[in-house]
Specification:
Elements lengths: L1 H18 L4 H18 L7 H4 L2 H30 L8 E6 L5 H13 L3 E7 L4 E6 L7 H8 L1 H10 L2
Antiparallel strand pairs: 1-3, 2-3
């Protein structure tokens, strides 16, 4: 809980510094945005503070963005080809995938990367069992390990470096 409060305070302070306006509207919106940030990123300060100052994490995150853009490009082409050519298979379904990520922030990033990649959509996150349920436009395998390898392995190994 202390980490969420600290995240809220840092977010609100940053909001006020960037908005340059003490109007009540800016303050109310800042409180709401900071609250949402604290809910979604509240475990950011649970690790030792020096870990968040490590530039290696940010280099891994930049690499993760490059991988995301590449995967997004490939998926966009795949979905576009399926739309333009009705003979290409569409085998939609929901698959269960396992992940080695444990923190809420890392799981949130993984689920968002999957959702933002065309052809996949994160439906549910089961934090207790470290798995996600993904709607997939063309299910290639119902096997949990195989689906995990295809869908999450690229992002998972990088996010592990970012959030360790």
């Amino acid at each position: 809980m202390r980490s969420k409060i600290l995240t809220f305070m840092v977010s609100f302070l940053l909001w006020m510094l960037l908005s340059f306006s003490p109007d009540w509207q800016h303050i109310v919106i800042g409180i709401l945005v900071s609250f949402l940030v604290a809910l979604s990123m509240g475990d950011m300060f649970t690790n030792e503070a020096h870990k968040w100052l490590n530039p290696r994490r940010y280099i891994w995150f930049l690499y993760c963005l490059v991988v995301f853009i590449w995967e997004c490009l490939k998926s966009n082409i795949d979905v576009a080809l399926r739309v333009l050519n009705p003979r290409l298979p569409i085998n939609p379904g929901i698959v269960k995938v396992r992940t080695i990520l444990k923190t809420e922030t890392a799981l949130t990033f993984l689920a968002n990367f999957i959702t933002l990649t065309p052809g996949t959509l994160s439906v549910d996150v089961d934090k207790e069992n470290s798995c996600l349920y993904i709607h997939w436009i063309d299910v290639k395998s119902q096997d949990v390990e195989e689906a995990s390898k295809i869908i999450v392995s690229n992002f998972e190994r990088i996010l592990k470096e970012v959030f360790k």
